[in-house]
Sequence to fold (154 residues):
Amino acid sequence: MTRRNFLTGTAKAIVTAIVTGVMAVAAYFMYPAGLRARAMVYCDCMDEDALPKKGVKRAEYRYKLKGNEMAHSVFIVNDERGVYALSPVCTHLGCLVNYNRLKNEFICPCHGGKYDVSGKVISGPPPAPLTRLPLKIENGRVYIGIMLPATAAA
Ligand code: FES
Fold:
């Protein structure tokens, strides 16, 4: 890594942290307290037996929000780090990434952002790694944790 790359990366990280902080503060004051309160909800995803023995598998988890059935995709990864869940939402502008089995990396179709199998940015414009989602296994089922408004989670 050259000094210029290091300084550019550091500057990007600082700008991203500042922008994220400002947006979080703005969102905090723009929304009423009832909407701000959030709670972790674990959503049913798959049978434990369906977990990938090794590698990456796309799965879906479901939950109800205000009476509507919601479904989102998630990547379940099993590698030397263990089993973990990655959000497919690109951290650049929110497109959904695809997994390329031959290259063993996630590729964003919108602007070419690339992530390694752990979700770390390899190249392109994404400012941060793919988000790891909480994952738990209970009674033979795999659950993905997401934050929902407390009123919807009850
Ligand atoms: S939205 Fe993924 S690289 Fe731009």
Q: What stands out?
A: The chain has three helices and eleven strands. Residues 1-30 form one domain. Helices lie at 3-30, 33-36, 150-153. The chain has two domains: 1-30, 38-153.
